[in-house]
Request: fold
Amino acid sequence: MTEPVVQAAPAKINLALHVTRRREDGYHDLESLIVFADVADELEAVPAEADRLDISGPFASALSGGGVNLVLRAIGDFRQRWPGTVPDGIAVHLVKNLPVAAGIGGGSADAAAALRILADMSSAPIPVSELADLAATLGADVPACLISRPLVARGVGEILSPLPQFPDCHVVLVNPLVPVSTPDVFRRLRAHDNYPLPALPEPMTRPAQLGLWLAETRNDLQPPAVKLVPVIGEIVDDLAQTQGCILSRMSGSGATVFGLFGSEGQAYQAAQLMRERNPDHWVAAAPLLTP
Reply:
């Protein structure tokens, strides 16, 4: 029996997100410091008679295994780009551990993990740059999720600068399980031409150093998202008051909020507190994945 090819699809976190320009095509240019947490969806794949996607896990009911799923689209597009390099049929099992439409990359991370699996299964070497180009056609966050390590993303998300060093940090993620529409958030955005991210300190090796830099940044999508879903602002305030929290902020277009911590103990203590206060929310604590 063929051993399955396994990949994790880690949660993406926008520690800072500046909207710098509205483009003529209707999209926005962004600058974002993106990191990934060691909490993830999981994918495993084996050759099969036909392509198939099975989904399990706590958030499986929010997804469909139909043709619109980004994982199946990634398989079809990969096969079109590199014909004959992967089996004619691939059965993928996705364990959906992360909430859907939550501002932490979910579907994009799953698609990126599928591309890494296909590159592993390929009978020919796949150039990383070409795989990244394909990732960009699947969604703005997919190229960053392909790397799944700390980076600065610019443009619509396709211009990536991986960071050679990053402090050891832990995060608490809290999601109220209320969906937030990204188009609705952008429609309520007041300014579309905000200033870019400040220069990152080099090297950046300490959590406190990161915290000082983050204090000069924002998530420009947080104010309109809070107007749409006020509980996001309440979670940001609650996390900010937990012991050891360096910064609390919304990730992406929401509704997931992160708290950044310098120690594992403080992060797990804060997560426990948030679970007790909000038993109906999704809460996770995890280290950040470093270079």
